[in-house]
């Protein structure tokens, strides 16, 4: 199924949101181990360009929230990416959610000219620079990694001041990034320890911080725990393939939601 077809199907079935992943490529060296263990699934090297997929999904739907889960901002030009985000949000009528992350594949980063040792500072500056582009008629930014003088860039996002910024990842310093420049945290579900980190995030925050989960298991009892912990949305991976493969997976997810809702 193509991105627009999947988006139309999940919207028609009453789902709230659809996120797409990003990898421009996967280095054949396989030096960086797959975080999930074992062999890297084929889907990592067989995916559409993220913003092409998002545009197709936006054009095929009218109410569905669409998002990046996640944009590898350390591998992207911030001026170009700010234009893409603003364009998708503008064309969708303000339905975009901007998930960003550091990534895990160090060879992939290096192929884009990114030094993995400085990627955290790079990520922060690129997000900060994009905020300037989205909110200022005449934007400029001066930092260690990102620097540009006065520019004009339109369209601006439909959402004000900009689409929500969802910080992905579950590494030891991810909460620092969420608190510094994020509107939400969107980790892969990682078990019981994640609930403790949710409590830590809320204890440290001086403003409301939304939490979503990616890669959430199909488990109504887990939905209960997530809801009790204040999680805004649980997301689950759908397989790639024809409708005969994708739709049954979605039906299993919906059945678990029905049990959680008492249906």
TrEMBL record:
InterPro entries: Lucif-like_OxRdtase_Rv2161c, Luciferase-like_dom, Luciferase-like_sf, SsuD_RutA_monooxygenase. GO terms for biological process: alkanesulfonate catabolic process. Residues 5-210 form the Luciferase-like domain. Transmembrane segments: none annotated. The keyword Flavoprotein applies. The keyword Oxidoreductase applies. Keywords: Flavoprotein, FMN, Monooxygenase, Oxidoreductase. Pfam families: Bac_luciferase (PF00296). One of its GO terms (molecular function) is alkanesulfonate monooxygenase activity. This is F420-dependent oxidoreductase.
């Amino acid at each position: 199924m193509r991105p627009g077809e999947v988006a139309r199907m999940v919207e028609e079935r009453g789902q709230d949101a659809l996120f797409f992943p990003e990898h421009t490529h996967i280095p054949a060296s396989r030096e960086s181990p797959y975080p999930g263990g074992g062999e890297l699934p084929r889907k990592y090297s067989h995916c559409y360009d993220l913003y092409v997929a998002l545009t197709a999904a936006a054009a095929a739907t009218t109410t569905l929230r669409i998002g990046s889960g996640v944009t590898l901002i350390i591998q992207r030009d911030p001026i170009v990416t700010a234009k893409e985000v603003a364009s998708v949000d503008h064309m969708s009528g303000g339905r975009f959610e901007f998930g960003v992350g550091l990534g895990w594949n160090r060879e992939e980063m290096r192929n884009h000219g990114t030094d993995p040792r400085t990627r955290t500072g790079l990520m922060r500056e690129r997000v900060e620079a994009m905020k300037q582009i989205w909110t200022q008629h005449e934007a400029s930014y001066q930092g260690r990694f990102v620097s540009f003088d006065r520019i004009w860039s339109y369209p601006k996002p439909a959402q004000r001041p900009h689409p929500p910024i969802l910080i992905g990842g579950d590494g030891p310093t991810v909460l620092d990034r969420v608190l510094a420049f994020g509107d939400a945290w969107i980790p892969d579900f990682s078990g019981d320890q994640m609930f403790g980190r949710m409590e830590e995030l809320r204890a440290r925050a001086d403003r409301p911080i939304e939490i979503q989960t990616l890669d959430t298991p199909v488990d109504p009892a887990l939905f209960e725990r997530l809801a009790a912990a204040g999680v805004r949305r649980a997301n689950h991976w759908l397989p790639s393939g024809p409708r005969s493969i994708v739709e049954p997976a979605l039906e299993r997810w919906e059945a678990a939601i029905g049990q959680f809702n008492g249906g």
